[in-house]
Amino acid sequence: MPEVFYRKWRPRLLADVRGQEHVTRTLRQAVVQGRMAHAYLFCGPRGTGKTSTARILAKAVSCLEPRDGEPCNECRTCSAVNEARSMDLIEIDAASHRGIDDIRSLREKVHFTPAEGAFKVYIVDEVHMLTEPAFNALLKTLEEPPAHAIFILATTEAHKVPATVVSRCQRFDFHRLSQEDIEARLTELCEGEGIRAESQALKALARSSAGSLRDAENLLEQLVVSHDSDVSLAHVREMLGMGDDEIALALVGHVLRGEAREGLEAISSVAERGLDLRRFHRQVQDYLRGLLLVSAGAGELLEHSPEAAQALTGIAQATTLERVLRAVRAFEGAAPRQDELSTLSLELALLDCCLEPAPPIRPQAETPAPAPAPRAPQPRAQQQTPGPTPARPTAPAPSAGPARATADSDAQQYRPQPPATPALAGNGAHGEQEQADGRLPEAQWEALLKATRVLKPNKFNIRALLLDCSSRYTEDDTLVLEFRTRPNMERLQEEIDNPDGRRQIQDTVRSVTGVQYNLRLCLADQGAGRTVAPRGHLVRAARAMGAQIVQEAGTEEAQNE
Fold first, then answer.
1. Which of 360, 376, 433, 441 is CA-nearest to residue 401?
2. Which of 22, 89, 180, 497 is 20 to 30 A from 514 in CA distance terms?
């Protein structure tokens, strides 16, 4: 049976290991100087050469004729390792041998002397899968192993390895391979196998492998089996379900130019052709990153073709860095789910970028008045006169009309006035009515709902709770929110009771209205137009256990009695 590419073309020398020169150089010098450590920890992503390096090191330390720290691959010990028949190289898969009994068995056999070479090398792959008792059993052996034993631990998740184990090893971190290194290795493989492959096809394979050489070699072998040693870019796109780069680049242009209809058509064409939406999303993200580099003046870092780089430069010159940042953030969280075929997340990100951000809301008159009439200030004593004040006036206070939009008021942020004080004129008769009776203008409410989308709540979604508000108005320095249902009101009250949540909500309200408001929640009594104060957490806990409220102290009925 023929060997698969990644095994057949596994590196046999430390110099053949791609992209890990910082590791191979140190190991080669350690072999030359005879200063081998008793335990090594190789960390890094999959397909970056950890196990291959461990096997090469096992050959080098026992090679009968080493050459500058490299194995000769000709002596009997090197041949035994290459042919997988060496008695001195023991490989353990910690994913399937992860218990304490497996480690005890290893610890009992570690004292046996090597059969042929100078060292007995133990490679423990995926070592992070060992159980805690197994790690504890391994500790003493790692700290004081026999002189002939070398342990090489390999893992893709170094953070799961106990610190006590890490401290007993020399740690080497393997990096993801660059696209250039993967492409160069694939080119060598194609030349050795007689494969005719387009350079753009190899570039696409390198970009799709996410830094894993083994993944790239597996993808190349699938293409060779499917297309008989003739690999083109079209074959790569067909196998991976990739959309044309032109479509992804065109979508980026539509996003930055605010062309919603054209962008939706591009996304729809990708879905209709049955292409992988997740890969298409990564393509768009890749181009947006390139556009971000160009806009920030770092275009030399681009890894795209000259044609794509020229197109990105043209787009960057016609837009601003702020708009590019907004697009990057919008598409960052727009990846379709693994089991979802809907294009909704991509379309929402597109439309979010195409919509202009809401401008600051300021009171403006519809038509400028020839001579603004000054408004007589209300006496301070009159504002503080004690007496019953209705929570919400039933009729709007008199207004001076558009003539009040003076230069001074236009230069200030809009501040809703208390119901007892005449408000500034709004945008037309409707806006003036809303401001006169203390209601929060609809434009400000919509801006507030949009601003709360980015909040990071303690427990509940703030925007979803605000959608349950039936009315909102101001009373002096307090913003009153009336809720249709008690559960939503109590959930928002729980967020406000949290100091961090209250700060986030108040800061968002201030950024929209320009006023530092206190917040008060109440429940709209739809029958009589009254409001009911929210109950405390003890009442909510009692009701959750099945209690019923018979009478509430402080209510209108209790006071009448």
1. 433
2. 497
Tens digits of residue pLDDT in 203-248: 888 888 888 999 999 999 888 888 877 888 888 878 876 656 788 8
Three-state DSSP class for 173?
strand
Q: Where does residue 68 fall: left (phi above 0), alpha (psi -120 to 50 degrees), or beta otherwise?
A: left
Specify which residues 124 forms β-bridges with: 92, 153
558 in helix, strand or coil?
helix
Q: Which two tokens stand for residue 360?
A: 């600051």
Bridge partners of residue 172, in order along the sequence: 42
Q: What is the pLDDT of residues 344-390, one digit of tens each?
A: 888 888 898 888 654 444 444 444 444 444 444 444 444 444 444 44
Ramachandran sector of residue 229 (left: φ over 0; alpha: ψ -120 to 50; beta: rest): left
What is the spatial distance between Cα 435 and Cα 363, in angstroms, rounded to a whole number?
10
Going by the DSSP 8-state scheme, the letter that residue 322 receives in this structure is: H
The full 3-state SS of 509-539, as one line of letters, equals HHHHHCCCCEEEEEEEECCCCEEECCCCHHH
Closest CA to 154 of 130, 188, 187: 130
Buried b / exposed e over 85-114, threshold 16 CB at 10 Å, is ebebbbbbebeebbebebbeebeeebeeeb
Q: Taking 60 as the threshold, does the pLDDT of residue 154 lie above it?
A: yes
Residue carrying structure tokens 């301070």 = 380
Contacts of 486 (CB under 8 A, 6+ apart): 523, 534
**What is the spatial distance between Cα 427 and Cα 461, in angstroms, rounded to a whole number?**
31
Q: Which positions ≥6 away from 463 have C-beta within 8 Å?
A: 449, 452, 453, 455
How far is residue 265's CA from residue 277's CA, in Å, rounded to a whole number?
14
418 vs 437: CA distance, rounded Å? 8
Q: Cβ distance 237 to 260 under 8 Å?
A: no
| Residues ≥6 apart with Cβ < 8 Å to 72 | 63, 64, 65, 66, 78
Across 510-518, average pLDDT: 86
Contact 561, 536 (CB under 8 A): no
Fill in the amino acid letter for 290.
G
Question: For 81-118, what is each residue's pLDDT tens digit?
Answer: 988 888 999 999 998 888 999 898 888 888 888 888 88
pLDDT of res. 424? 36
Amino acid at 121: V
Beta-carbon count within 10 A of 438 CB: 24
Looking at 92-101, 387-396, 423-432, 501-510, which range is the least confident one?
423-432
Percent with pLDDT over 90 in the chain:
22
Contacts from 407-412 at CB under 8 Å and sequence distance 24+?
407/372, 409/363, 410/362, 410/363, 410/364, 412/362, 412/514
Average pLDDT over residues 540-559: 50
Q: Which of 172, 216, 146 is nearest to 26 (CA)?
A: 172
